[in-house]
Amino acid sequence: QVQLVESGGGLVQAGGSLRLSCAASGGTFDFYAMGWFRQGPGLEREFVASISGSNTNLGSSVKDRFTISRDNAKNMVYLQMNNLKPEDTAVYYCAAARVVRGIPTYDYWGQGTQVTVSS
């Protein structure tokens, strides 16, 4: 079925930037909404961003700093993260969803990529 592989995580200083990438295979990429989630140490999974067609949504804590985009021809989705803060430290997961009546169900998940922001 659908496989998702994230890349681009790493260690960055506060105020820096990273771009995460997610490569999809095994499905019809165009049919899925794509999302990014994260889970920090001791915290619950948190919604970060999503893109469905040309529509994007960003979590309130990142809306002024992060951008989600996709390239359907390459089966890729990206998360551009700017002005990173220590509280952004987390494992970031790429996910794919079918959307029914505007409601996404995330059925497929990547393995995650670690983002660590030092202060």
In short:
This protein has 119 residues and is mostly beta strands.
How many beta-strand runs? 11
Structural class: mainly beta
**Portion in helices:** under 10%
Tell me the fraction of residues in β-strands, as a range: over 45%
Average pLDDT metric: 94
User: Which parts are unreliable, with pLDDT below 50 for 5 consecutive residues or more?
Assistant: none
- The shape, in one word, is globular
Distance between the termini: 40 Å
List the secondary-structure elements in sequence, H or E.
EEEEEEEEEEE
Main sheet record: 7 strands, mixed
Q: What does the radius of gyration come to?
A: 13 Å
State the helix count. 0
Describe the overall structure.
By secondary structure, this protein is mostly beta strands. 0% of the residues lie in helices and 60% in strands. It has no helices and eleven strands. It has strands spanning 3-7, 10-13, 18-25, 33-39, 46-52, 55-58, 66-71, 76-81, 90-100, 103-109, 113-118. Strands 2, 4, 5, 6, 9, 10 and 11 form a seven-stranded mixed beta sheet that branches. Strands 1-3-8-7 form a four-stranded antiparallel beta sheet, with no helix packed on it.
